[in-house]
Amino acid sequence: MMMSAMAWAQETFSRVNLNDPRRMRRLVQVGAQMATHVGQSVSASCGGNKALLRGAQRLLSSKALDFETLERECCLSSLSQVRNSEGDILALCDTTSGSFRHAIEGLQGDLGGCAQARSHGFFAHSALLLERESERPLGLGAQLCWQRPEQER
Known about the structure:
By secondary structure, this protein is α+β, with helices and mostly antiparallel strands. It is built from 6 helices and 3 strands.
């Protein structure tokens, strides 16, 4: 049985400690919004709701939210799903790239590429856990983000 995007976001992000219940609610809200609009930007997923977009931008730029913590908690939530599953579990792996050509790339720190490049980015290798029989997604099993070392650019 497939759960709603909000139920998924609550289950996935409930362990993340952001030291503020408002940020926690915002994380769940943004997670559900993005899950409902897979493949879209944060801006597009907000559907023109400027308040929702501003809240998402504040959350994503907050020093209280870091990628490593978010990734770890998502993987731990997935592990909980695996423990409650029966049968074989598949790990579907894929590598994708993230590329930034606009103002936000300067806010993200070093994303790779030479200083003269028109865009900067990274690679993310992800493993999605899936029940073999039901094909039900269980969540993110692991994710490795990588960029070329500075001396190789």
